[in-house]
């Protein structure tokens, strides 16, 4: 089978894995902390290809010396990272986390705590978890498996992870290490490479139109020039996704084929 | 020879008072001191302030009306992300909440253990954690940088409850799983700490189970020791046992339906008069499931 044929068969989930992997490109020797199945596959793909120095956790207390498939256990362990060390390590900055977002706004403020009035939420979610310290201390990207105007909202109900406007308003201690490299959804890739740090549509996954993304977004996205398509995986990247990183197809639970 | 501090779960509860601030160790649905939590559920204790990396401990105590206030960064059951009883309590505004980031919580515990009024953190700046907790203050660095940081107040507790794999009668505690969680900090940040364990052993046996760094909790920080086999059920207690996922699902599904919840409560919470009766009820439930599967 030729590379072109393989690429032609890339599913939306494969593009999402690749787009998540790209978040860690150029990061060097830092801890990749992916939350969610597609980001877990992405971090593994990045380590196996263009970011070989990444540290990967097993999702519990161990750093993996090898790269087992998503859902698998490592055969070799290279480090110990119990929660207390993880919560300290994030403040070293040698970490790039990709979190989920129940709500996210145009400046990258993220909410996973609750929907509605915090004092009496209409829907209690996870809680603030580590979002506040993550965003203040190390690069934080986001993964949204079901892009909709209920997630991409004009204003989040509770700011857990801080966006660019809130960081700026809080002052230099908040902006010092604050960075949101990218947001990946099932429709496209987003960044904040705009003069006023508004969310920009950086690429659309093949098969998705700019109009579709705009319609599923509750605020006006910045668009600069022609929006490119999310890049194609190489034949080797596709093989790694399918045979090594996620042979059980767990990524399809988040993004149906 | 150090004093023998062994006691029963009900003896632990008899030493607690309504209105106390209670720290609960473990994390999410992992190594929670559930035998001690169940003993509280059987008691008339109430009006508690609970400090926890929350799991079903929080859900159960909240549902039973025992919690006035919660200090937490999350409440989850890990394999089931949202704790259904906690959700219900929050959506009814049945409990007060101090919501902190996970790392802020850790530095709060650390400050509490070290008897400090606060520790500074960068995490929290700019977030709504400061909005929903109007008591939180920032502090300016006295050094050249002049940075303004969050002053996370020390979390002090009247009593802490933790569950470890092994302990001796004097209150030394050993964990054998991959993660200590924050159980030593909980014990150090509390005026009294109660340690339940899977198995009581002679101190000489610790070295056979693991290296010295597995000895997490020191007896100087422990008031009482309880032998509670399967005492973290249905949360995990690696390597002694994994989470009882089938039972946790049963808990979560029951919580979503008033009739099913009444049956669950009667069978596992209000019915059993002791930890032993609870464990028998769980065994019987598993046997029935196996029979039904045949």
What does this protein structure show overall?
- The complex is a heterodimer of chains A (257) and B (294).
- By secondary structure, chain A is of the alpha/beta class.
- Chain A has helices at residues 3-8, 12-23, 37-48, 83-89, 131-137, 164-170, 172-175, 210-215, 235-245, 251-254; strands spanning 31-34, 55-56, 62-64, 77-80, 95-100, 103-104, 110-111, 114-115, 123-124, 140-144, 183-185, 188-191, 200-204.
- Chain A is built from 10 helices and 13 strands.
- In chain A, strands 2-1-5-10-11-12-13 form a 7-stranded mixed beta sheet. In chain A, strands 3-4 form a two-stranded antiparallel ribbon.
- The longest helix of chain A is centred in the N-terminal third of the chain and has 12 residues, at 12-23.
- The radius of gyration of chain A is 18 Å and the shape is globular.
- By secondary structure, chain B is of the alpha/beta class.
- Helix content of chain B is 34%, strand content 22%.
- Chains A and B meet through helix 4, strand 9, helix 5, helix 6 and helix 7 of A and helix 4, helix 5 and helix 6 of B.
| Overall pLDDT metric of chain A | 96
Question: How many helical elements of chain B?
Answer: 11
Biggest interface reads: A-B, 48 and 43 residues
Strand content of chain A is 15-25%
Instruction: Output the structural class of chain A.
Output: alpha/beta
Termini Cα gap of chain A: 21 Å
Number of helices, where a helix is a run of at least 4 consecutive DSSP H or I residues of chain A: 10
State the helicity of chain B in percent bands. 25-40%
Rg over CA atoms of chain B: 19 Å
Mean pLDDT of chain B: 98
Number of strands of chain A: 13
Let me know the largest β-sheet of chain B. 9 strands, mixed
What is the structural class of chain B?
A: alpha/beta
- Describe the strand arrangement of the main beta sheet of chain A, using strand numbers: 2-1-5-10-11-12-13
Uncertain residue segments of chain A: none
Give start-end ranges of low-pLDDT stretches of chain B: none
Helical residue percent of chain A? 25-40%
Strand content of chain B: 15-25%
- Tell me the series of helices and strands of chain A, N- to C-terminal: HHEHEEEHEEEEEHEHHEEEHHH
Q: Rg of chain A, please?
A: 18 Å
């Amino acid at each position: 089978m030729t590379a072109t044929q393989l690429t032609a068969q890339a599913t939306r989930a494969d593009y999402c894995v690749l787009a998540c992997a790209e978040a860690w490109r150029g990061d060097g020797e830092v801890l990749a902390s992916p939350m969610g199945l597609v980001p877990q596959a992405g971090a593994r793909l990045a380590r196996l290809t263009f970011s070989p120095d990444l540290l990967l956790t097993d999702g519990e207390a161990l750093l993996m010396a090898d790269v087992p498939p998503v859902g698998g256990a490592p055969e070799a362990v290279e480090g110990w990272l119990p929660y207390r060390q993880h919560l300290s390590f994030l403040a070293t900055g040698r970490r790039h986390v990709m979190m989920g977002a129940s709500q996210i706004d145009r400046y990258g403020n993220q909410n996973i705590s609750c929907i509605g009035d915090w004092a009496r939420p209409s829907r209690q979610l996870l809680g603030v978890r580590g979002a506040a310290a993550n965003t203040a201390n190390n690069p934080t990207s986001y993964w949204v498996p079901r892009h909709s105007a209920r997630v991409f909202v004009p204003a989040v109900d509770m700011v857990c992870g801080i966006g660019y406007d809130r960081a700026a308003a809080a002052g230099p201690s908040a902006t010092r290490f604050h960075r949101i490299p990218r947001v990946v959804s099932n429709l496209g890739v987003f960044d904040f490479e705009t003069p006023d740090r508004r969310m920009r549509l950086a690429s659309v996954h093949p098969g998705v139109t700019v109009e579709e993304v705009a319609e599923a977004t509750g605020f006006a996205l910045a668009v600069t020039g022609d929006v490119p398509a999310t890049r194609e995986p190489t034949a080797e990247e596709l093989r790694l996704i399918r045979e090594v990183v996620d042979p059980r197809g767990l990524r399809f639970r988040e993004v149906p084929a | 020879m150090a004093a023998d501090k062994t006691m029963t779960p009900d003896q632990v509860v008899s030493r607690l008072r309504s209105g106390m601030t209670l720290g609960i160790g473990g994390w999410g649905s992992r190594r929670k001191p559930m035998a001690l939590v169940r003993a509280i559920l059987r008691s008339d204790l109430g009006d508690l302030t609970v400090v926890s990396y929350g799991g079903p401990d929080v859900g159960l105590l909240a549902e039973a009306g025992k919690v006035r206030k919660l200090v937490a960064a999350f409440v989850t059951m890990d394999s089931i992300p949202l704790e259904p009883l906690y959700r219900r309590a929050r959506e009814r505004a049945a409990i007060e909440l101090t919501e902190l980031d996970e790392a802020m919580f850790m530095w709060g515990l650390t400050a509490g253990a070290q008897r400090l009024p606060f520790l500074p953190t960068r995490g929290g700046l700019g977030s709504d954690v400061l909005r929903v907790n109007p008591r939180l203050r920032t502090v300016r660095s006295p050094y050249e940088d002049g940075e303004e940081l969050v002053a996370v107040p020390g979390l002090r507790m009247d009593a802490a409850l933790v569950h470890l794999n092994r302990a001796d009668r004097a209150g030394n505690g050993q964990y054998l799983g991959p993660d200590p969680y924050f159980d030593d900090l909980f014990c150090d940040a509390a005026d009294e700490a109660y340690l339940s364990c899977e198995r009581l052993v002679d101190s000489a046996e610790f070295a056979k189970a693991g290296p010295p760094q597995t000895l997490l909790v020191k007896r100087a920080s422990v008031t009482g020791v309880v032998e509670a086999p399967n005492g973290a059920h249905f949360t995990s207690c690696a390597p002694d046992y994994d989470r009882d996922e089938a039972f946790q699902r049963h808990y979560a599904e029951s919580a979503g339906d008033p009739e099913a919840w009444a049956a669950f409560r009667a069978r596992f919470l209000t019915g059993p008069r002791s930890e032993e009766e609870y464990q028998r009820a769980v065994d019987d439930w598993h046997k029935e499931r196996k029979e039904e599967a045949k």
